[in-house]
């Protein structure tokens, strides 16, 4: 991705986080990105295709960053608790990123993959290893519960009703308990030291 494309994508993320897709136009995008309208036209098929690219990039990048930030052999429940808290902390640290997820997290096909690909595989792995207690056919419903909890926690943080630490730990603990992790273990895992979220290459 060129420097201009990066600026356009970053500006688009902020604009889409605040407005509906139909409310974003080339002039607003050019102004937000600090580039000429011609640069936008040279790098853009349509506003709709730009949205899909931004959403896909956001989804893939976060999955990679979470994976890079955790040891490969980390226990399933620890992986889940830490992943949940990473999302909520990042929504605090990068408000536009968080608002984009909250606004489109369930409606965008590209963003829905954030809750289904690797996270679903991790959930199924934990179930097979005996870390969780639910029926295999309930996996997608459990994933929907996790996604809903994470997005709701982001809203609490955005509205100033909870700190990211409290929201992240509370939701991680409740979701761990929901999938069958013992209460004391869930509480401990949800309050462990949270490592840094590694940047994607």
TrEMBL record:
The lineage of its organism: Bacteria, Pseudomonadati, Pseudomonadota, Gammaproteobacteria, Pseudomonadales. Residues 2-62 form the HTH tetR-type domain. This is DNA-binding transcriptional regulator, AcrR family. Transmembrane segments: none annotated. GO terms for molecular function: DNA-binding transcription factor activity; transcription cis-regulatory region binding. Residues 25-44 bind DNA. Keywords: DNA-binding, Transcription, Transcription regulation. InterPro entries: Homeodomain-like_sf, HTH-type_TetR-like_transc_reg, HTH_TetR, TetR_C_40. It comes from Halopseudomonas sabulinigri.
């Amino acid at each position: 991705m060129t420097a201009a494309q990066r600026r356009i994508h970053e500006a688009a993320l902020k604009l889409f986080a605040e407005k509906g897709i139909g409310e974003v136009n080339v002039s607003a995008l050019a102004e937000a990105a600090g580039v000429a309208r011609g640069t936008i036209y040279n790098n853009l098929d349509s506003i709709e295709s730009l949205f899909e690219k931004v959403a896909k990039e956001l989804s893939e990048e976060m999955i990679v960053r979470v994976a890079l930030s955790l040891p490969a052999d980390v226990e399933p429940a620890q992986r889940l608790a830490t992943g949940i808290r990473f999302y909520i902390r990042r929504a605090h640290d990068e408000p536009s990123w968080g608002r984009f997820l909250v606004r489109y997290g369930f409606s965008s096909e590209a963003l829905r993959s954030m809750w289904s690909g690797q996270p679903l595989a991790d959930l199924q792995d934990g179930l097979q290893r005996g870390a969780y207690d639910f029926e295999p056919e309930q996996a997608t419903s459990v994933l929907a519960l996790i996604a809903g909890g994470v997005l709701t926690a982001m809203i609490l943080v955005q509205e100033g009703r909870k700190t990211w630490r409290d929201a992240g730990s509370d939701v991680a603990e409740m979701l761990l308990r929901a999938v069958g992790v013992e209460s004391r273990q869930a509480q401990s895992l949800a309050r462990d030291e949270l490592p840094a979220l590694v940047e994607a290459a």
